[in-house]
Amino acid sequence: MAGKKFIGLDVHQETIAIAVADDGVDSEVRYFGTIANRPEALHSALKKIGLGGSELRVCYESAYSSDAGR
């Protein structure tokens, strides 16, 4: 199905959780899954989500940790 899909990425050090919503006011947000935080895993997931020619709009959230590297 063509059209827009809105993708939310919750980025962690080892994983990325993915949610998807189709364009439209009544669109339900669906949990797509959790993938490894690796470029090839993200590329593969976005290809699957975009099958059928959908335009993807992607945003991400990542937590800041002041303890990074400790």
| Average pLDDT score | 90
Question: Which strand order does the major sheet show?
Answer: 3-2-1-4
Distance between termini? 46 Å
Q: Helix- and strand-based class?
A: alpha+beta
* Percent range for β-strand residues: 35-45%
Shape by Cα distribution: globular
What's the number of helices?
Answer: 1
Sheet of most strands = 4 strands, mixed
Q: What is the C-alpha radius of gyration, as a whole number of Å?
A: 14 Å
Low-confidence stretches: none
Query: What order do the helices and strands follow?
Result: EEEHE
Helix content: 10-25%
What's a concise summary of this model?
This protein has 70 residues and is α+β, with helices and mostly antiparallel strands. Helices cover 16% and strands 44% of the residues. The protein has a four-stranded mixed sheet, covered by helices on one side.
Could you explain the architecture of this structure?
The structure is a single chain. The mean pLDDT is 90. By secondary structure, the chain is an alpha+beta fold. Strand 1 and strand 2 form a beta hairpin. It has one helix and four strands, in the order βββαβ. It has a four-stranded mixed sheet with strand order 3-2-1-4, with helices on one face. The longest helix has 11 residues. The protein starts with a strand and ends in an 8-residue tail after the last strand.
What's the helix and strand layout?
Elements: E1 4-11, E2 15-22, E3 30-36, H1 39-49, E4 55-62
Parallel strand pairs: 1-4
Antiparallel strand pairs: 1-2, 2-3
